[in-house]
Amino acid sequence: MLVQKYVDMLQGKSVIRTLSEFAAKRGKEIGYENVFDYSLGNPSVPVPQEFTKTCIELLTKEAPVKLHGYSQSLGIPDVRKKVAESLNRRFGMAYTADHIFMTSGAAGALSHAFRLVAEEGDEILTFAPFFPEYNPYVNLTGAVLKVVPPQTSDFQINIEAFEAMVGERTKAVLINTPNNPSGIVYSGKTLKKLAGILERKSKELGHRIYLISDEPYREILFAGVEATYVSKVYDYTISCYSFSKSLSLPGERIGYVAVNPACPESKTMIQMCGQISRGIGHNCPASLIQLAVARHLDKTSDLSVYETNAMLIYEELVKLGFTCVKPGGTFYIFPKALEEDAKIFCEKAMKYDLVMVPGDSFGCPGYFRMAYCIDTEKVERSLEAFRRFVKEEYGR
Prior knowledge:
The protein has helices at 4-9, 15-30, 49-61, 64-68, 77-91, 105-117, 134-139, 159-165, 188-205, 266-280, 287-293, 304-319, 342-350, 376-394, and strands spanning 36-37, 100-103, 123-127, 144-148, 170-176, 210-214, 237-242, 255-259, 332-333, 354-355, 357-358, 368-371. By secondary structure, the protein is α/β, with parallel strands linked by helices. The strands form three sheets. A seven-stranded mixed beta sheet has the order 2-8-7-6-5-3-4, with helices on both faces. α3 (49-61) crosses α11 (287-293).
């Protein structure tokens, strides 16, 4: 007998992946260069050449057993130490290796973080719009994901609605800033309000509410936008990071958990991660990649193209009459559709070879996401398709 919940999930595959598959199929018919595929958030800029050189150097000079053997359960000790030192330099923290756990990407980091603080029936709150995979990430642990309604005027946190939803079963709050899908960066003011509520509610409820910060887009910030390091405002923060976006390494599946040193249980929590790995199989990410990223912790790929693309799209959408909050980072933009049903809107757009994701699965019906991690030349060509789409379908 097969496990029914996973059989049932076959009927609810990722909308993003389904649209990406459509774009690939359409590309075989007309040439992928003619499909304006804004579906999948796959980094489009190359990994830094220095990273490639590091990998070559390691492969030619280091012992194969060191490069290809299992690492220690918590990650290679020197790599963890260097991650801690990098965070301390950049954000004025006091991490040591004992506060760092190496993971297979941000998904692996989140898988550990949820299990650190929530059990069967406990609730984890997050804020719409949110990454749709948070649903299986959380719900398959036995905990329950609860979604706070969006504040669509600016996509900052809906503080009033959030405070009303915190209850006896709330064990953690999950945030993502810079945010997928909105591209919005939570302000320092927003984060301080959030931290204040968490402190107060923790005291009222008699148990600690943890803050889980999903941070894969932390380095993709646009000019004039400031981002607060979340652990600076709340002691009980678990940071979940990935190098997928900063170094354009999504296929290497490398990231980490960093538990705020100010949290009294922080070192125990990192040790617990090693035990959690025994049950979920996310332990021991590739030793070669751990060693390579440790040499490039303060570096990024050339991420400037994302801001270029963002401004091109934002300015054109505004001209065409879309309601749209200007992104402050990431490689996503989240406009309001030109009709109530964003699914129908996105279906119509596909006739013009514009592939975009309706906002329903992000907890925000009526909006749509564009992942503009594509070549700028292709973005520019897509704008004419947008103009035709809007004129022919909506008379604008």
